[in-house]
Each structure stands twice: as C-alpha cells, then as structure tokens.
Amino acid sequence: MELVFYFCISLFAILISCIIFSNSIEWLGAKLNLSHGITGSLLAAVGTALPETIVPLVAIFWGIKRADLINILSGKAETLNSVNQISIGAIIGAPFMLTTVAFFLIGLSSWLYFKTGRRSSVKINMDKTILERDLTFFIISFSLAFLAMFLSHIFHLILGVVMIFIYLLYLYLTIKEETKTEYKGEELHENLDPFILSRIFPMLKPKTPLIIFQLLLSLAFLIFSAHHFVDVIKEVSHHFDLPAFMISLLLTPLATELPEKFNSWMWIRQKKDTLAVGNISGALVFQSTFPVTIGLLFTSWKISSPFSYLTFVFCLISAAIVLFSLKRNKLTYKTFLFSGMFYVIYVFLVFFR
Length: 353
What we know:
Elements: H1 2-31, H2 38-61, H3 66-73, H4 82-115, H5 128-148, H6 153-180, H7 196-200, H8 208-240, H9 244-256, H10 258-269, H11 273-287, H12 290-298, H13 310-327, H14 333-352
C-alpha cells in the first residue's frame, strides 16, 4: 500500500511539473511576441514536448557509472534492464497516447459540442496541408523506429542520424510553408491560462524575468520528480511482477502528455480545429524523431515481449486511418473516437491475455 502511495505521489508530482512548465512556455512565448513567428512555433513545439523527453533521459543518465555509459554507447545495453525498459516505454508511450487517447479526446469533445449545439457540423474543419504533412512525417519516422527494433546497434546509430534529419526537414518545410502566407491563427494571449505564480502571489506581475524563473523552477522540479518516478516504477515492477516497459508505456504519458493536450478540448469548443488537431499532430512528429533518437543511441531499443510490438502497429494504423479520412474529405469525430479503441484493446490484452 505504501508503494502505491509513493507511486501516485511521484506521478502527481510529474503532472504538476508539466502543468507549470507548459504554463511558463506559453507565457514566455506571449511575452516575447513569438506566437506569430517561426521562433514561437519552434519554442512551443520543443518546449511542450520537453517534459516527455525528460523521463527517459533521467532514467538513462541519472547516477550512471562511467563503465555503464561506455557499454551503452558501444551498443551493449542490457535488453531486460529495468532502466532500459522504462526509457523505451516512456519514448514509445508518448506517440501511443497521442494517436489513441488524445485523438479520442478530439472526437469526444467535437461530438459533445455538436450534440449540445456549440458546433454545427460533425466534420473537423482544419488546414488539410498541415495535418497531411504532420501525419506523413510521423508514419515515416515511426515506421523506421519500428524497423529499428529488428536491427543491430550500428543501424540504430545510422537511423538516429536519419531521425534528426527527418525532423530538420520537417521544420524546413513547415517554415517554408509558413512564410508563404500571412499568419491567420489566433493571438496566443486569447488562449492563455492565468500565470501560476501570479495566482498564488497576486502582487507578482508576470514579467519576463519572473516567467523565466517559473520555467527554470518547473524544469528543476520536473527532473527531480522524474528521478523518483523512475525509482518507484522499478519497485512497482518488481513488487507486482509486472514488466517495467508496460507500466512506463501506459502511465508515464498520462502525466506528461495529457495535461497540455486538454488544450485541444477547449480549442474544439472554440471551433479552432486547426489548433486543436495540429497541437497533437505536431507533437507526434517531434515525439517520433528526437526522443526516438535518444532511444536508438542510448538504449538497446529492444523490448522484452513481441506482444509489445502492437503499440507500434496500433499507432501507425490510427494515424493512417486519420490520414485516409482526411484525403477523402471525411474527417469527422467518428474517426477520432475510433482511435481510442486501440488504447482500450491494448490495455485489455495486457491484463487479460
């Protein structure tokens, strides 16, 4: 019982850290007037995805010995090592959560607001070019990540470089497309939540130095929380005889991914479909490239059970279904609701197989 308590506390600490971190990033972008420009897009993309990347980095490098680091870099990381499995689970878990639960939330919110009359159509009306580009890049990069599971370490090194190149190409095409047309999105200030430190201490005004202070504070708290979370996952895995990979895969993204993705729910309510879906699809591209590169270079990139390959399969099928519906101009809430079934099926198979 004590172990479950510490597990919940550590998970809650990561959740709070992510909320404060995202709040800081949004306010920093607004203060620097970056929401209209390319730099703002990069800040938001990397900034909001950083918490999901922290957990595997902490799991791998916190307190690592020099001999272990040499083994990792030379491709001799232990496949069944709990740190190895926690890291891989956190890396794969983010895209899995986005293509299932996050997509499901898009479908659920649009259906509810359609039924209550807030939305006049069942269709998701968004910039087709953005979603098509994002999902195409995601399917390519995540397919390569899946292929790497069956390859040796030398190919992991090569694909690690390829992943970085893919993301840089994605950034180039995104920037090139953005500079062609005038920005038509919403002012970031319109969607800002209250600055957290100002809510706690009303006398403090959200000026740039204070925003940076809150950002650094949340980042430090996030790293500290992630360290304890990794330790607790090891204990839970050992105590309940459950694979560390499964626990990390299913639970870590709940704290690191979902808080910021609830923004999509509010944007669907405001009929800002491009913001809502693009928030998720843009994160998918980053999560399937940079964190995967970390996994390829610093873990064995092997999972303990072939059953876990289903996570890759479900991610790719879900993304492909959304992309297919988009190309046929039949992208509705039903498509996104259907994506949630893959998460339910996987959880069911994990506990009842």
